[in-house]
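hiii, so i know i said id send this last week but things got crazy w the move. better late than never?? heres the sequnce for the chain we talked about at the cafe, plus the structure i predicted for it. fair warning i was half asleep when i ran it
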Amino acid sequence: MAVTATPTVTPERTAATSSGAVAVTAGLVLLVAVLAVVDITQGTASVGPSQVWKALTGQAEAGDASVLVASRLPRMVAGILVGVALGAAGAALQAVSRNVLASPDTLAVNAGSYLALGILTVTGATLPLLASSTVAFVGGLGAAAVVLTLAGRGAGGVRLVLAGSALALGLNAVTEALLLLFPESTDGLYQWAQGSISQNGFDGVVRMAPVVLAALGGLVLLARRVDALGLGDDAARGLGVPVRGTRVTAVVLASLLSAAAVTLAGPIGFVGLCAPALVRPLARRVRPLVRHRTRIPVAGLVGAALVLGSDVLLRAVTSAETAVTVPTGIITSAVGAVFLVVMAVRMRDSDAAAAPDRLRIPSRTAFTVTVVVLVAALVGATIGAVLIGDSTLLLGDVVNWARGQAGQAVTFVLDTRMPRVLAALCAGAALALSGTLVQSVTRNPLAEPGVLGVSGGAALGAVLLVTSAPGAGSWSIAAAAFAGAAVSACVVFGLAAKGGFRQSRLVLVGVGVAAGTTALISLLIVLTDRFSATKALIWLSGSTYGRTAPDLLPVAVVLVVATAVTVVRRRELDLVSLDEDTPRLLGLDLGRGRLGFLVLSVLLSATAVAAAGTIGFVGLVAPHAARALVGRRHVRVVPVAMLLGGTLVCVSDLLGRTVIAPAQLGAGLMTAVVGTPYFVYLLVRSRR
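okay and structure toks below
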């Protein structure tokens, strides 16, 4: 019987590992110091290293000293403080959830804090900075609690990211509604929400520094218990560690760090995800970094380097005037999106995103009754949308308008209202059909054009054209949207196809691409003029405002063609949605068929975005509800999903136009409010 010798931990080995940790820490401190020095030399005023040194030693002229004290030094210190807070918060959240994708972004902490501060801004209340931080803390902590509850402890990355993304979409939809409803009181809130470390003096830094240091100290003191959680709940209890209390305390302290960062600089994205991920490879070589007493502060230093590095990069590649207007958070979000995609590609597919649909085949009578009811609902919603609005009409007015016999007032109302109603119907049906195709081809019940970043790519292409060429026509916008959607789809489906469209990889790559497109859209909106920015924001909310008959032509043509192709090839779609082997055994070219359906899906999403802006969750809700009602055969699913999608967007557009009239909300905001609870329901059901 062979006996394995237990490795002896010698003093020399302990000293070597300790010296390694010291070297890593010293290297990070040096990197942060270098970035800090470079950062304070960058700006609109010409202040070089020599002026900085003179200012720090009290020998500078009054002008140079005032620039440094009032702007440069506070910006640099804020960058360090925010980076340390977010890096440490991400490390703590990943430890207690045992999930490498946990962060203030994926747990919707930033979205909750943003909404809380948005509500505070709308009310007009003026609170001290610490009180504002408390409001942000409450919002962020509530969001994190909801996401962690939905995902479950130890859940795989895809469930956590899906829960956080869904909740963040819903919370951001409410915040965007506040921006559109109260433009005066929320002026500048959108740019702040992208994350900027620019400061006007040291007041904010001085007040937030004690909060960050206190929360960081609390996490360090809690580190031994957090280490025990890594052994499993039962083992931790056996060591006398209060598992629930430790987990709750760590989440509270991490949320406090995130809230302080949001209060000081706005939501700066993905630092809390990237910083701990960069520390993990170091921990394999330097053993002391395995313990969270060391890992959390080191992750904070990496976070500080990321924030300062992003700010330095931004100011190095753009003009000084442009760098002032572009928030640092846009750069970190773009870098983080790429980072998330890389992590998704390398991640093993270990958890299912959702439970598969039950196999049920309702009778033909049940299908007929369902279609009749949905057609009646669609007709009722359409009639209501045509008659109700800023001015209420009668059916006789519509009949007279159709005959060309209506009065001038009625003609004007219907000439502007009818295209809006038709745009909502066509966009809803197109998104529903697009979602049906994507879910069938990828065999992923949570795949949806918005979640997978396809709609985000279409929105990016359209916004790029809207902000650069305000007079662009409907076909030009549709072409730009298709180009953006095609690029996003190639990235998402191309990377996911290598693993056979596994659920985790597909969804996480899609979320990363969606985050990247959102960052680029924010960059375009920040850089453009105020008129174009407002126009883009309204369009992004899923508004049908100002639509004309020519605007409907692209989505109508694509919808008719895609519907005809889908109906003709419905049996092939049934086979593709089953598994990998059955279609091949029956002689079907799986690759070509899958590519064709995906191209149709991208076309549908792009033209829907061009016609009605960004409308989320329709491509998820409609196919799910259709399969629940009529089973999985696509000869039934397709018409029912399209009826549901058209009705949902039409009703959402009607509510957005009438509930708070004369003000209006985009249909996309309303569908987000409806779709978020449904998405949460799907996650809860799959967890069972």
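btw The chain has two domains: 27-321, 364-687. thought thatd interest u
miss u guys!!
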